[in-house]
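As a warm-up, study this chain.
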Amino acid sequence: MNEHQIEELQPSPATHALLSDSAVRFLVAYRVWIVAVVWLAVRGYTVWALTPNYSIESYFKLASDWLDGYLPYADFIVEYPPGALMLFSLPRIFTEAPVLYGYFFAGIMLVVDLGILLVFWRAPARTRAGAAQTEMARSCESTVLCLTYILFTAVFGRLLFQNYDLLVGLILVILIYFALRKKNPLVDILLAIGIWLNLIVLIWLPLLWWYGFISREQSNGVPSDLHIRGLLRNLLPRAAVLIGSLAVLYLPFFSCPASRWDISCNFIWSAASSLTARLPAF
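Now compare it with the structure written out below.
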């Protein structure tokens, strides 16, 4: 084993300060099993004996009305964007029982939960590829990150799988991941999908665009003087991608035979009310 390989197997000083060398090596060697066992234990206890709460009952009713032939935003009030309505309807296709609907919905959220874990698992290696950090340190960091996420979200209990905020969380995590890797087109497409699911994602729009502009200026080696022309040159293509993606996602819901004006007004009013109600929680 050469000197470089030995260095790669050494824990970082920050990791060494928190854990002993033997603990770090054990954590890295069995990290897949450790994360899997903790995830199964915590999530299994949470999902066991689920009963429909108010959110699940409202999702079930909205999905049932839509599948029964009623027109959303025209025949019945929907305070969610179209993407959320499609998500609510997915488990309703397979069952007409509210209890089973709750379990199907929780199953979808469990898949989303695994997606967040996968992003956290890969994030340290992808976002710090150029940093002076050993392979063992990156593996230990990703393991600690996953365990912290599992244990922290366990505080929310069953609410974690009886609301669709976890899906919005996955989109935000992927947004930050792609923003750190300077993948601006993917960031804007994901922003559109997030807005299609939940309007609260709009709050992240200025922050992500501002970060994209600043990181681009720094990568070009030019001092960021924040002139209007440079700002517009950077934001106009991103706005075009975002608006185009939103048009593709939203237009099918507004091209129905009913009055488009009524549907648009009802959707805007319901969405504004929902966004206002969710701001304190955010």
